[in-house]
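quick q for whoever's on today - can somebody do inverse folding on this one?? i tried earlier but teh output was garbage lol. tokens:
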């Protein structure tokens, strides 16, 4: 470090300018979309599964229909009654297969108008 007081002031000013310049380039925080989303999922669905469902806009009803069609649980079983092991080990772990069933269900939707 230079011992000249003028050099020390110059270094401190340049450091302050650098820090101010890098602060402006910082990425702004992303807004919390959980309060602005139109598509919502119930809080009792685990976050890991919610994240997968949000990505493809899969509703709880569609997810349960896939569960019923595959015969895992009887029709009418509420999500809250699904064991954690099933949710984590089947729905989350095998999400691509679950999503394929949901996409098959979606492909057979009847549209009441054209």
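ok took a stab at it. sequence:
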């Amino acid at each position: 470090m230079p011992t000249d007081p003028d050099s020390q002031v110059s270094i401190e000013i340049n450091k302050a300018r650098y820090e101010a310049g890098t602060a402006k380039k910082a990425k702004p925080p992303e807004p919390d979309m959980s309060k602005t989303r139109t598509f919502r999922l119930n809080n009792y669905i685990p976050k890991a599964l919610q994240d997968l469902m949000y990505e493809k806009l899969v509703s709880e009803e569609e997810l349960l229909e896939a569960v019923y069609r595959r015969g895992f649980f009887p029709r009418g079983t509420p999500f809250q009654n699904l064991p954690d092991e099933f949710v984590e080990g089947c729905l989350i772990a095998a999400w691509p297969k679950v999503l394929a069933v949901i996409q098959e269900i979606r492909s057979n939707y009847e549209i009441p108008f054209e």
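fwiw The chain has five helices and no strands. also The mean pLDDT is 83. so keep that in mind when u check it
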